Amino acid sequence: MRCALATDVCSTELRTGADLVIGSDEERALVKAVRDSFPSASNIFCSLHIKDNLRHHMTQIGIAQDIREKVVALVFGTDGVATSADESTFESRVCSLFQYVRQANLDIVPYLQDRIVPKLQTNFSVISKDNNVGKHAWNNNNCESVNNLLKLSVDWKPRRVADLVEHINDLVKLQYNDLRRSLFGQGNYQLAPAFQHHYIPYARWAKMSQEGRDKAFNNFMEDTGKRQEQKTVTSSDGRLTVTGTNKIARKKNQCRRPRSERTQPKHK
């Protein structure tokens, strides 16, 4: 892996941003190759692999099953280290983990310090800063379907990085086309409730120009899903409420003045 990346990446221009995030398991050769080839990228680790490796290590050194599951729960449970919402909670749960391990006299403190906690700390730092990464324990299953499509596109054979990027680009275009079809109710995706106002009946979509379709899709892509609260105006008796600003209740050319302001006759 490292040789392949070192051969191609050095002679290939990759316009990757500073916010690039690469997920992987704990394979040391892969992690080192990625760090050497993409030094500005952040790396997160699969939580399922970390959990399985922790459980396997405790099994090898002869820790009882009930204690193993207790340790796993302290690390990956609902109130575990991996699910911490903020830095103070993360540190508090790490302290609780080591307190339990030392009280139970378990010989896994060095393993936790060297292999588990640093990776969870890395994951926490990346996920808390990057809005594009889901706020949950990331795992390789999140990209297995795309990974399978990528392997099929290269016929399960090693390729040069430039060729690999072209295949990835084709897959991304395919996903964008599928996302576009969700606007008129077709394809593999459905509009979430927060984006339902972008829905266009297929009969109308079929008659739209390419420019109109691109504009509708761009509006959809620029939508963050956060709707601003609509302002309303209520009548003085409270019997009627309409949407809008206070200006809609004014007459044309009407302006406000302080109640105490004295008026002057228009003509003397």
Report on this structure.
By secondary structure, the protein is mainly alpha-helical. It has three domains: 2-44, no CATH class; 46-129, no CATH class; 148-222, no CATH class. It has helices at residues 2-9, 28-37, 47-60, 65-76, 87-103, 109-129, 144-153, 161-181, 202-207, 210-222; strands spanning 21-24, 42-45, 232-234, 241-243. The strands form two sheets. A two-stranded parallel ribbon has the order 1-2. A two-stranded antiparallel ribbon has the order 3-4. The protein is extended. The chain starts with a helix and ends in a 25-residue tail after the last strand.
Write the layout of secondary structure elements.
Blueprint: H1 2-9, E1 21-24, H2 28-37, E2 42-45, H3 47-60, H4 65-76, H5 87-103, H6 109-129, H7 144-153, H8 161-181, H9 202-207, H10 210-222, E3 232-234, E4 241-243
Parallel strand pairs: 1-2
Antiparallel strand pairs: 3-4
Number of domains: 3
Radius of gyration: 28 Å
The proportion of strand residues reads: 5-15%
Low-confidence stretches: none
Shape: extended
Report the count of strand segments: 4
- What distance lies between the first and last C-alpha atoms, to the nearest angstrom? 93 Å
Q: Strands across the major sheet, in which order? A: 1-2
Mean pLDDT, rounded to whole units? 80
Order of helices and strands: HEHEHHHHHHHHEE
Portion in helices = 40-55%
